[in-house]
Design goal:
mainly alpha, globular, 362 residues, 13 helices
Amino acid sequence: MPEKKVTWLELFYDLLFVAAVSKATHVLLHVEHSSITWEHLSKFILIFVPIWWAWVGQTMYNNRFGQDTLKHRLFIVMQMFFVLIMTASLNVDFDAYYVPFFIGYIGLRIITTVQYLLTARSEVLHKLQTARFFGTYFWLGIAISSCSLFFDSWLRYAILYAGIILDIIVPLIGRKHLVVTPIHTPHLLERFSLFTLILLGESVVSLLSILDAGDMSFTSIAFVALSFILVIAIWWQYFENMEKNVDKTKRTAGQTIIYGHLFIYLSLCMIAASIQLVFLDKLEYGFMLGFVFGSVFIYFLSVMCVLYSYRFEHLRPTVKHISLLLLLLIALFSVNLLVVVPPTVVLVELVLFFIVFAKTTA
């Protein structure tokens, strides 16, 4: 597989999503009656998915067809402008900011789709078919989402996300085109890993928020220290595997990486929010346990799915290892349900779990 490096402009493009991810994560900090309501949980997902998909769309184009030319740079710069518009419009009050959000998201998708159509003019054989397929069928999702402008209330969002969902499943429908035009695995893993690093940075921001809001007491400093160890353990588990244990010579459609990382990213945002909420003691004990351990559970399953698909065959986690890690997580959750423990103890348990997780898989 020929070498393909991540460009400086791609890194700059990724950094613009930091603010978008931060705004999405802050939706989870809205607590009512000692819990995060289903309304805010659903809004978090509805905000995050378009952010993820807009980033994935351009990332996949860059991976297969991107070249560091002036024309390509101009397209990326135009996309960055729409990222700014979309990010500025992200708010819990969707209705008030719907039009700028729509302009930002649809602008990103249109630019990516136009890039595919222009690429189809210069490619041949299977690359021509792949570029033409995406350049044709991505318009369907854009057209459906655009119809949302003619409606109000819940119907507007139903139509918007119907188009987004169709957009997301287009690569699944066109898998035969992707298999013959495989991803550049090292480049794609590096891009997704860099975005993971951005989300881990959200956890660090949560730690800074704790220190800013606290009185720098021994309790707050100890909590931040434990949280920092937890973030490092997650970093160790993820990046040690990506660096040493993943087979980067595999030529695939990359769909396990793409869709698996959606759940990795969602869970990392939830973990970042839970760190801050646990310290502030805003959540009812049972809800706190469910939210924290649920976030870790989603991360565990999604990471194991990606690792099982892309690790070297002799290094793949066995059913025994997966089962033992899952039983450990369930056991910690069950014990905490039976015996009420302080939030710091829950944090210690998560640190131990991720250390064991890292040692077992990395």
